[in-house]
């Protein structure tokens, strides 16, 4: 069972004070609650059969909180934590959980995204990686790995260093018209 549906793209990126509550609510409703609702009916039957697999398309955004995408990042971080916790319980009983953390992938979601999108993946390349992760029953696959590593390293910095760096990167991206 793959939970892929998500609210992403330009609609989900706005200064926190300008973000309408309805959109914040929809982001959590679709990206977090929708995914959990998708999996829930399958848990008991999969465990009874002793086989099955759950796959969640989360995001590299789960690894780092960025102000203009606060709700999106938090919804994906919540999904990732939930699925990793499920995996502890389900994998030893024959139902592995696979998390995918993509960076930027060329899909309709990014058409209206006005941010920098480094290391963009074409859809077919992304699908190859996702397929390998699923068939290999991997726990967590991040791609591109270098962006995944960078996000995690930046997030580990003290806030006093990290946050000005993130602000600078966002402002450089907006000045370059991205
Ligand atoms: N593209 C990226 O760069 C990127 C990066 C990281 C993670 N992701 C994640 O990848 C997943 C797929 O995104 P995408 O890039 O393919 O975006 P997309 O092109 O906007 O597709 C989103 C999909 O989610 C479905 N969906 C949205 N709201 C729904 C709802 N309330 N109920 C049922 N289905 C709903 C849409 O169905 P309809 O077409 O019927 O509306 C569509 O099939 C998302 O979880 C996204 O967060 C994408």
Quaternary state of this entry equals single chain
- Report the uncertain regions: none
End-to-end CA span: 35 Å
Write down the secondary-structure element order. EHEHEHEHH
Give the count of structural domains.
1
Main sheet makeup = 4 strands, parallel
Calculate the mean pLDDT score and round it: 95
Listed once per kind, the bound small molecules are:
NADP nicotinamide-adenine-dinucleotide phosphate
Question: Roughly how much helix do the residues carry, as a percent range?
Answer: 40-55%
Structural class: alpha/beta
Question: How is the CATH topology named?
Answer: Rossmann fold
What is the CATH architecture annotation?
A: 3-Layer(aba) Sandwich
* Gross morphology: globular
The count of strands amounts to: 4
Number of helices: 5
The level-1 CATH class: Alpha Beta
Identify the CATH homologous superfamily: NAD(P)-binding Rossmann-like Domain
Structural key phrases:
178 residues, Rossmann fold, four-stranded parallel sheet, 9% strand, binds NADP nicotinamide-adenine-dinucleotide phosphate
């Amino acid at each position: 069972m793959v939970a892929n549906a998500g609210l992403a793209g330009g609609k989900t990126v706005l200064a926190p004070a300008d973000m309408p509550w309805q959109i914040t609510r929809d982001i959590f409703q679709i990206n977090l609650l929708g995914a959990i609702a998708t999996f829930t009916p399958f848990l008991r039957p999969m465990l009874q059969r002793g086989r099955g697999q759950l796959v969640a398309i989360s995001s590299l955004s789960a690894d780092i909180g960025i102000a203009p995408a606060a709700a999106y990042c938090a919804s994906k971080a919540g999904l990732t934590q939930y699925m990793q916790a499920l995996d502890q319980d389900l994998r030893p009983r024959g139902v592995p959980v696979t998390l995918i953390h993509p960076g930027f992938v060329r899909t309709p979601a990014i058409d209206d995204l006005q941010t920098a999108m480094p290391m963009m993946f074409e859809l077919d390349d992304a699908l190859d990686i996702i397929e390998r992760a699923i068939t290999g029953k991997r726990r967590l696959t991040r791609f591109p790995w270098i962006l995944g590593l960078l996000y995690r390293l930046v997030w580990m910095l003290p806030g006093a260093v990290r946050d000005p760096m993130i602000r600078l990167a966002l402002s450089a991206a907006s000045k370059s018209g991205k």
